[in-house]
Amino acid sequence: MIRLATKDDLPAMVALTEAFHKAAHLQRFAPWEASKWESWLTDVLASDQATCIVADDEGVVGMAVAGVMPAYWNNDVKLLREAVLFVDPKHTGKGIGTELIDELVDYAKSTGCQAVSVGTSQAMNPRSLGKLYRKLGFTLEEKAYIRRL
Question: Which CATH number does the domain housing residue 111 bear?
Answer without folding.
Answer: 3.40.630.30
